[in-house]
Amino acid sequence: MKLFIYFGLMIISLAVSLIIGRLQMKRTEKFWIPFLSGFLLNIAILGIGSIWWFLTETDGISRGLGVLYYCIAMGVIGVVVLIVLSVLKIKSN
């Protein structure tokens, strides 16, 4: 169950970042503000997830790798949000 929550937070973070970024881009028709808000939301969700994983895991290597994977996921999700929003921006023009 714990592993399901661990990977579920990554998927939730991706979905929420994309939805918030897309909705804000529709409202403002700008690019960087929706990207930054989606990316900062991504950092907040996975940052809280990192703290949760670090506090609940007992093995030191698992703690370190879990937080490292969340940091890698932050970067990957940021790139995905950037690409999706730029494609949506090009299609709207």
From TrEMBL:
The keyword Transmembrane helix applies. The chain crosses the membrane at residues 6-23, 35-55, 67-88. Keywords: Membrane, Transmembrane, Transmembrane helix. This is Uncharacterized protein. It comes from Anaerobacillus isosaccharinicus.
